[in-house]
């Protein structure tokens, strides 16, 4: 469990990062969406940040959390690029703006809840499948015994790829697979 000081320091650090990067956000977003090699750069950058954070000290659960956050971010950014490149993420025309929210009805609430449940189930299935694949794969690649999964996951060589790959696919699934599935079944 995090101490209150850690949470406050993290919050203040996040504000500092936003202040520094705010002027460049539009440029970064445009690059992430439109540059054809952006996924390669995104994955490489997030992976390098994960490896760097793992070399700072010994293994801890916070290192796994870092890999999970970086993997999710990479998956979401790559998914956004994928959607944009396929023309699935279109900017609204000036005539469509400003958006007018629909009236809240029982049908709207039911449809939103159904979309939420379907999305969560799909992402949980994707997470379970990637976990089943990535942990044994990392153990095999790095020659680590996979008999005790809990012990194997305490090794950086297993934890980083497991979290990064699994949550990278979850992020990609949230941006690409779930919306596509909802469109296929007529709920988008």
UniProtKB/TrEMBL annotation:
GO biological process per UniProt? sphingosine metabolic process
Residues annotated as transmembrane = 7-25, 37-56, 68-86, 106-126, 164-187
Which GO molecular function terms does the record list?
sphingosine-1-phosphate phosphatase activity
Q: Which UniProt keywords apply?
A: Membrane, Transmembrane, Transmembrane helix
Asked whether the UniProt record includes Transmembrane among its keywords, one would answer: yes
The record's Gene Ontology cellular component field reads:
endoplasmic reticulum membrane
Its protein name is Uncharacterized protein
Q: What is the lineage of its organism?
A: Eukaryota, Metazoa, Chordata, Craniata, Vertebrata
């Amino acid at each position: 469990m995090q101490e209150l000081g850690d949470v406050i320091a993290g919050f203040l650090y996040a504000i500092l990062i936003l202040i520094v990067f705010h002027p460049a956000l539009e440029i970064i977003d445009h690059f992430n969406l439109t540059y054809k090699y952006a996924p390669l750069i995104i994955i490489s950058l997030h992976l390098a940040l994960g490896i760097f954070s793992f070399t700072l000290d010994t293994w801890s659960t916070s290192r796994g959390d870092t890999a999970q956050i970086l993997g999710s971010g990479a998956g979401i950014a790559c998914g956004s690029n994928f959607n944009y490149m396929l023309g699935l993420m279109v900017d609204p025309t000036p005539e469509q703006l400003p958006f007018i929210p629909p009236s809240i009805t029982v049908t709207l609430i039911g449809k939103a809840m159904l979309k939420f449940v379907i999305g969560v189930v799909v992402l949980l299935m994707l997470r379970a499948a990637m976990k089943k694949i990535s942990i044994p794969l990392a153990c095999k690649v790095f020659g680590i015994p996979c008999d005790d999964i809990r012990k194997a996951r305490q090794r950086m060589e297993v934890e980083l790829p497991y979290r990064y790959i699994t949550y990278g696919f979850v992020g990609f699934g949230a941006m690409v697979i779930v919306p596509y599935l909802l469109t296929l079944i007529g709920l988008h």
